[in-house]
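Quick one, probably user error.
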């Protein structure tokens, strides 16, 4: 720890002396101006003096020339803040929250806390983010049983934070995430059958219970072209006009329009209440931050209740908020609705995403097709004399002799 002290004199004179001492101190240690923001300054003022504590770490590298006559050249590495990546992560999480990007902030926070757990420390320097360490971190996550898609989510969040550090000049881009998994793997297709939807409809639940609300919101989401739970809970009364529900998806911003059907109107009327801008009674807080917290708590409770409803209805599938969208997409595809129309109904920006939502409906057709081919092959094998011969080429085929 080093101390610089400017004592006595007028305020302007003290500041001049102070500035000169700082410059002299920095020159002594060959600190470049562009790196001066890495010095941690602790200010304390009193009537008689201004004291600054300068805390830093110096990495000294000595380079020798191949020529025996050359003198040794010493180069002082730039000052390293041992917690600059932690400070940046906290700042970015705060910025995302201020911009009402709560999911982004939550992803940053979850990924960074996981990294801190792996490194067993809270103060992380951006220089510690290396390709080898990120590869070790990925192995550690796999050993803990974390799935590849979650690992990809963590790594993507950390890479974004690292890129921010590069933009701010805290480090040069060393590509530390080049060896880790950053794509996605096919997920298990989550959908239920028409019969299972009917079982949920027929469940006898206590009036006014959260179980009843969970069942009703699940069915409403299904009726409304697979509306996501986040959009259903945030649905405002003003978004329903002339028998049409118009809303923008929270995730993509895509505008989706849904014709209001009697089964949907019945559920809306069931939960109609005065003094609330929302269609359903889930969000009651005043501020955006409080409502987001309330939404997360409701989502957790909703998914937990759906599992209990599945047990009561005898549904073997793992019922969750995602199932409703997969179910609607699968049933639409089974009903020969074209893929672009399904994609538009779900608010997807491309049909590739929609394919993830559709259960492997073609598997049964593939089984039948393969069985037909094998039967034909085996038939030919057993009766080679009956193998059909190719017809001779047509005179109009355009083949020249």
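Nope, works fine. Designed sequence:
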């Amino acid at each position: 720890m080093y101390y610089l002290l400017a004592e006595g004199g007028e305020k302007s004179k003290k500041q001049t002396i102070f500035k000169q001492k700082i410059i002299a101190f920095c020159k002594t240690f060959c600190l470049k101006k562009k790196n001066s923001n890495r010095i941690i300054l602790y200010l304390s003022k009193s009537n008689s003096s201004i004291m600054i504590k300068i805390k830093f770490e110096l990495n000294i590298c000595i380079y020798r020339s191949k020529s025996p006559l050359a003198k040794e050249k010493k180069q002082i590495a730039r000052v390293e803040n041992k917690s600059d990546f932690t400070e940046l992560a906290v700042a970015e999480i705060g910025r995302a929250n201020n911009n009402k990007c709560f999911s982004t902030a939550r992803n940053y926070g979850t990924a960074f806390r996981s990294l801190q757990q792996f490194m067993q420390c809270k103060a992380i320097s951006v220089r510690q983010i290396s390709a080898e360490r990120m590869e070790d971190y990925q192995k550690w996550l796999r050993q803990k049983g974390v799935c590849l898609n979650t690992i990809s989510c963590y790594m993507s969040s950390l890479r974004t934070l690292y890129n921010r550090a590069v933009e701010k000049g805290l480090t040069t881009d060393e590509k530390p995430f080049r060896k880790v998994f950053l794509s996605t793997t096919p997920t298990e297709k989550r959908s239920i059958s028409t019969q299972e939807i009917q079982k949920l409809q027929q469940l006898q639940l206590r009036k006014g219970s959260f179980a009843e609300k969970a069942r009703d919101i699940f069915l409403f989401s299904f009726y409304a072209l697979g509306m996501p739970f986040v959009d259903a809970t945030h649905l405002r009364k003003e978004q329903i006009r002339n028998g049409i529900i118009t809303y923008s998806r929270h995730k993509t911003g895509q505008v989706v329009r849904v014709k209001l059907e009697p089964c949907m109107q019945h559920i809306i009327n069931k939960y109609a209440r005065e003094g609330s801008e929302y269609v359903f009674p889930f969000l009651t807080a005043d501020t955006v931050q409080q409502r987001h917290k309330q939404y997360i708590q409701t989502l957790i409770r909703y998914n937990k209740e759906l599992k209990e409803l599945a047990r009561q209805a005898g549904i073997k599938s793992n019922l969750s908020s995602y199932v409703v969208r997969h179910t609607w997409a699968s049933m639409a595809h089974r009903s020969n609705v074209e893929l672009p129309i399904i994609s538009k109904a779900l608010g997807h920006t491309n049909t590739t995403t929609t394919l993830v939502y559709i259960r492997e409906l073609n598997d049964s057709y593939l089984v039948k097709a393969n069985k037909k081919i094998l039967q034909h092959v085996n038939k030919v094998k057993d009766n080679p004399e009956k193998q059909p011969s190719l017809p001779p080429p047509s005179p109009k085929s355009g083949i020249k002799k």
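Residues 37 and 358 are 52 Å apart (CA to CA).
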